[in-house]
Amino acid sequence: GNFVPPIRNNGGSTSNMTSRVIGKNDDSMGDSTRKCLEMLCGPDGELPEKLRNLEPRLIEHVSNEIMDKDPNVRWDDIANSCQPAIAGLEHAKKCVTEMVIWPLLRPDIFRGCRSPGRGLLLFGPPGTGKTMIGKAIAGEAKATFFYISASSLTSKWIGEGEKLVRALFGVACCRQPAVIFVDEIDSLLSQEQQTDLKNWMKQHGGDLQNVYIFPFLHQESHCSMVYFKEARAWIIRNLLEKDGLFKLTEEETNIVCKLTEGYSGSDMKNLVKDASMGPLREALQQGVGITKLNKEDMRPVILKDFETALQEVRPSVSSSELGTYEEWNRQFGSLA
Ligand code: ADP
């Protein structure tokens, strides 16, 4: 109810904008746009004030492409850590629970000095679970999840970024509680600033007083390698068990984990995907066509499948890249 749009409305032309009531005879609006706006209307059949004077096509885009009504990720789907340099997902989950989920579930308690921050900055190499955390927040807090990539604002939506952001906040406001996940925020920085995030932080420090710096990085090596290996083992087991395909022994799982040092969560997911093709490829070699193949005739995924897959799926993050995140965490992170 206390929503304040982040961008000032400078007035401007209102042609081609939505109005209070969606006119039944408004031919300029396609069926899907009309349907989408109708879904956002209140019980009185009127469009909420926050959506008036916004372009219908932008509202439609936000509702169809950016809003994810069922993110379908739960806390338990997220491994606690998956790379040597990335610890602290346990810490991240705890902080997110206290800073975001509880306030969303119990706004009556989180007021005054307990008022929650308005934003959260998750940083880390690609494929380490940042988006998953955003979706899990929405899932756990029964909130609507909005995903937008900042780089798409600057490329695909050249000149319209501001209007789109306004539509995004308008729709999110009507769908509260909402989680807005802005990916690749660094793409909003200039090239020069990108090379030195520190400068950006200094320059924008004032605006960021409500943004929590939330690192997944840990500079101390006391988080032993075994811990990280366990996280990779967890991802392998979790993904294969879902399909009833996990039959590796502990020793075999350990071998895979040793061979996957430096693999991110999404690298592990890709590896499991590739390995799970092994039994299928082998079964097809017997001459049975894909359409006639009996699922039960396929063997489980074995160590050999992982060894083959390892030749295809390489780690996507280099150790020098990790060093950059570590350095940033040392300067600005919340995890000592
Ligand atoms: P990011 O947003 O950090 O780039 P994502 O959250 O999009 O990474 O991760 C991509 C995919 O990789 C996820 O959908 C998931 O399957 C897998 N993944 C990444 N990190 C983890 C993790 N910590 N635990 C389990 N799966 C993970």
UniProtKB/TrEMBL annotation:
Task: Recite the lineage of the species.
Answer: Eukaryota, Viridiplantae, Streptophyta, Embryophyta, Tracheophyta
Biased composition regions of type Polar residues, renumbered to the chain: 10-19
> Domain of life, per the record?
Eukaryota
Protein's name in the database:
AAA+ ATPase domain-containing protein
UniProt keyword terms in alphabetical order: ATP-binding, Nucleotide-binding
Q: Which family does it belong to?
A: Belongs to the AAA ATPase family.
Q: Which GO terms describe its molecular function?
A: ATP binding; ATP hydrolysis activity
Residue numbers of the full-length protein present here: 332 to 667 of 668
Q: Which residues form the AAA+ ATPase domain?
A: 116-312
Q: Which organism is it from?
A: Oryza glumipatula
